[in-house]
Amino acid sequence: TASDTPLLLIEDVVKRFGGLTAVDHVSFTVKSNSITGLIGPNGAGKSTLFNCITGIVQPDSGTIQLDGVKIQEKSPNQIAQHGLGRTFQTPKIFRGMSVRENLAFAAPVQHGERPVSTLIHPQKIKEEETAVQSRVEDTLEFLSLDHLADEYASGLSGGQRKLLELGRVLMLDPDLILLDEPMAGVNPALTNELLDRLHELTNRGRTILLIEHDMDLIMNHCDRVVVLHNGQTLASGSPSLVQDDERVIEAYLGD
Ligand code: ADP
Ligand code: MG
């Protein structure tokens, strides 16, 4: 990929629900190895846009490209295989499984799950199992969850669950990670830990698009900011530029 090709391109995307235009001709790009913040008042269309990108809902019109490939007619699974991972506002973890099991179960579909290949390639399956196990251990360490590895997910704090959900996404080794309000309800110490991990992920070549309410946090940690309001792109650019934008100030004061 040429360095000026954006990892994610959103062009003129529209999504209507009956008479309501939730996403109204939105356009922006996300550069590789960056953290982009998506902000806007409640109901602005942020989660709907995420659902369009991840294939959960189909946009009515517009273009969505991931690494130069049109993805808006693909299934969520195909889009995930193409290098996109996401978390949800409410973490989707298995509460009755341990932290370690939650991570292992998030690994991509393995040879071993198909009976025929089990007979033909027993050695290959062993190798894959070992690879998943070592990936689980790396992820536990990366997110400082090692000491909780054998705890049930149901026993974790809200912030720890968010870390675990990020871990489940990382098991898929995505290029682009979409995070829907990852810091909401997370205590300050864990928020800092999470932010630190996000920066480390961009150092390791990953790209992050995150929805967040906390304006200070967005301004201090994002390379670029996109502001949605009533489904439309109100402003986009560097944090300092967006922060001083009259329309952004008005939208937030009027909320
Ligand atoms: P945000 O995440 O910015 O708070 P949403 O994307 O959740 O905003 O919602 C944008 C608008 O679309 C809201 O008015 C919401 O009520 C509406 N909406 C979202 N999902 C649906 C749906 N599945 N059916 C009908 N309306 C929806
Ligand atoms: Mg939302």
TrEMBL record:
InterPro entries: AAA+_ATPase (IPR003593), ABC_AA/LPS_Transport (IPR051120), ABC_transporter-like_ATP-bd (IPR003439), ABC_transporter-like_CS (IPR017871), BCA_ABC_TP_C (IPR032823), P-loop_NTPase (IPR027417). Belongs to the ABC transporter superfamily. Probable component of a branched-chain amino-acid transport system. Keywords: Amino-acid transport, ATP-binding, Nucleotide-binding, Transport. This is Probable branched-chain amino acid transport ATP-binding protein LivG. Coiled coil: none annotated. It comes from the Archaea. GO terms for molecular function: ATP binding; ATP hydrolysis activity. CDD domains: ABC_Mj1267_LivG_branched. The keyword ATP-binding applies. Pfam families: ABC_tran, BCA_ABC_TP_C. Residues 8-255 form the ABC transporter domain. GO terms for biological process: amino acid transport. The keyword Metal-binding does not apply. One of its GO terms (cellular component) is plasma membrane.
